[in-house]
Amino acid sequence: DQQVKQNSPSLSVQEGRISILNCDYTNSMFDYFLWYKKYPAEGPTFLISISSIKDKNEDGRFTVFLNKSAKHLSLHIVPSQPGDSAVYFCAASDRDDKIIFGKGTRLHILP
Amino acid sequence: GAGVSQSPSNKVTEKGKDVELRCDPISGHTALYWYRQSLGQGLEFLIYFQGNSAPDKSGLPSDRFSAERTGGSVSTLTIQRTQQEDSAVYLCASSLGWDTQYFGPGTRLTVL
After folding, report:
1. What is the interface size between A and B, counted as CB pairs within 8 Å?
2. Which of A9, A81, B41, B88 is the most buried (most CB within 10 A)?
3. What is the chain B residue with the closest CA to A103?
4. How far apart are CA A83 and CA A62, in angstroms?
5. CB A12 within 8 A of CB A67
6. Best CA proximity match to B22, nearest among B104, B87, B110
7. Which of A109, A111, A102, A108 is nearest to A44 (CA)?
8. How confident is the model at residue B78 (pLDDT cuts 50, 70, 90)?
């Protein structure tokens, strides 16, 4: 049973436009959420996180939104740049246990 | 300081052989995780070590898989009698408790 779901395996966005990556979770005990970015042949790198006490966290071009009632979070990248092309993993934790990752969404930024 | 390192970076083995993959976490990190990423798949959790607690082995796909963490630092993932479906990139990550995980570059395992 997948507790963290990224239903879009891939997404293509024009350079300069907004990229929106979505993630749904099923475990209401999750209270900390993270996004990781992964380039080919490299390990994932931490991008941005959000605690359940907040509904938005912003870091430069990256903003994560959390909708607890819908058990949904999203990552917005604006403006999208060619270097943003990568696989993005959503992850969630209840702080007492391991972090659970989604299957990832491959983002293609088109020139 | 140094990040998480893994060795070897690539491993090619024959079906039925045993392999050992090594992970050196960031010094001081109490938590260590092993994941694998098969072609076209996401990150599959394998095993989790936290301090001196018993490891969470719930993600290990079969009893051919085992892992140790010696002295609360270096970890070794062992796959016995490898099968072709074991071919994947094996990723190690470490963290301070439940906080942000830092990943190593991974070991690409190919079972012929």
Report:
1. 49
2. B88
3. B42
4. 13
5. no
6. B104
7. A102
8. very high
Q: Chain B residues with CB inside 8 Å of A89's CB?
A: 42-43
Question: A79 has which bridge partners?
Answer: none
Helix (H) / strand (E) element for A107: namely strand A105-110
CA distance A96 to A93: 8
B43 in reach of chain A (CB within 8 A):
yes
- CB atoms B104 and A43 under 8 Å: yes
Token pair in block for residue B29: 């990190």
In the structure encoding, which two tokens stand for residue A80, read together?
Answer: 């999208």
Closest CA to B24 of B85, B71, B84: B71
Residue A91 in contact with residue A36, Cβ under 8 Å?
A: yes
Per-residue pLDDT of chain A (111 residues; tens, 9 = 90+): 679 999 999 999 999 999 999 999 999 999 999 999 988 878 888 899 999 999 999 999 999 999 999 999 999 999 999 999 999 999 998 876 678 889 899 999 999
Asked if the Cβ–Cβ distance from A43 to B93 is below 8 Å, we say yes
